[in-house]
Amino acid sequence: MIIKNKIVILLFLLTSSLFAEFEYKVDNTNITISQDSLLHNYDRLRFRGDYSENSFFATVIGDGVNYLGHNYINSNRFESIKSVHSDTPFKTQSNFKDYGDGSVYAKLYRLYGGYEDSDNRVVVGLQNITMGVGRIWTPTNLFNHKNIYAIEADEVFGVMAISYTRYLDETSHVTFVASQKADHSFKYAARYKAFLGFADFAIDAVSSNDTEMIGYEIEGNLADTGVLLRSEGAFIENSLNTQTGENKENFFQGIVGADYGFENGITVVGEALYGSKEFSYQEILLNLDSEILSDLTSSHFYTGLTLSYSFNIFLDASLLYIESYNDKNSRFISPNLTYTLNDNNSFMIGVMIQDGEVASEFGMSDNTYYFKWVLSF
User: Which among 110, 120, 137 is positioned nearest to 175, based on CA atoms?
Assistant: First the structure.
């Protein structure tokens, strides 16, 4: 009888697995970079697996990362990269292993699972928490803020969290998040989003031992013009490190922006960022591990513009332009050109120009030139 029961259970599991779906993807990203007179190569081999069965799902993403370039891996810049880690209660990457002219490590990028039906969605694990409507800046996102000045701006550390979304009706939902940080303390968030007849509107709140934030989001079309208008803002209180110790800072940061796609294929995104407080270069260096690092800006006011255009199905171009308004204005200009050879290969060439006087925000660093190849198989 016991053996018979085991056989029945095994057959049940095997039958159930027939209805499950597992998809995987492997890609290799290789970037040759010339930065601050240092030439080096960055290579990332990534595996992604997605499992789904009925309303359940799971995702795992793991990376093997290699840096190559003798002068680069012995530079202060590389030492600063090695010191940056995810703000999670466990390590998500191995130690760097140096060899010859290179250095290699492994990283767990995402690992989460969950359940979703028509009324609920719950996700547990190392994941990405999205907040905000900004295209260039997102002041309300205190979880997975992207680095707009990086070649891969969306490559951000995951957070260890449980997130729950309740769909109240077709146009509104509420989301709750609890994440655990590296010091084992918790950060909480709540978000309510609804359509108010003319625009989507959301209220955000974040709370942790170091930070309190209340924010808003609004996004909607301008009549029948095709122009998409948006704004978001965050009122932030945070305990920041200073040269004299820890200090409470209160400030506001917000954006307004608009998108428009022309019939000829050009898409334009404009955005302006205002911050009520400026932070010095030294203050930013003292708070590199702060959860509000992306909101620590050196100027009160910035404007940003992105242009994108598809010449054909193979060739695309884009441009990011950011102007920093300060005692000494400076600018960040990043054009790139992407050629898609086929479903498995794409190539990008680009430059990041930092222009301004030596003492200005963007005038302190050299330009960056890069060639990127993504191979999928």
Answer: 120
Give CA–CA dist 331/365, Å, rounded: 11
Contact between residue 362 and residue 332 where contact means Cβ atoms under 8 Å apart: yes
Map tokens 């789904």 to a residue: 52
What are the pLDDT digits (tens) for 184-232? 999 999 999 999 988 999 999 999 999 999 999 999 999 889 999 999 9
b/e sequence 29-58, b meaning 16+ C-beta within 10 Å = bbbbbebeebebbbbbbbebeeeeeeeebb
Q: How far apart are CA 252 and CA 260, in angstroms?
A: 27
pTM: 0.90
β-strand partners of 261: 267
Nearest alpha-carbon partner for 128 in 109, 147, 153, 114: 109
| Rounded CA separation 164/304 (Å) | 33
Q: What long-range pairs does 45-54 form, CB within 8 A, spacing at least 24?
A: 46/109, 48/24, 49/22, 49/23, 49/24, 50/22, 50/23, 50/24, 51/20, 51/21, 51/22, 52/20, 52/21, 52/22, 53/16, 53/19, 53/20, 53/21, 54/19
Neighbours of 200 (CB within 10 A): 16
Identify any residues that bridge with 277 across adjacent strands, giving them in sequence order. Answer: none
Q: What are the beta bridge partners of residue 42?
A: 31, 67
At residue 1, the pLDDT reads 46
SS3 74: coil
Report the alpha-carbon distance of residue 165 to residue 191 in Å, rounded.
9
Please name every residue paired with 348 in a beta bridge, in sequence order, or none if there are none.
Answer: 338, 372
Q: 286 in helix, strand or coil?
A: helix
Tell me the one-letter amino acid at 238.
Answer: N
- Exposed, middle or buried by CB within 10 Å (0-12, 13-18, 19+), for 250? exposed
Four-CA torsion 15, 16, 19, 25, nearest 10 degrees: -110
Mean pLDDT of the chain: 92
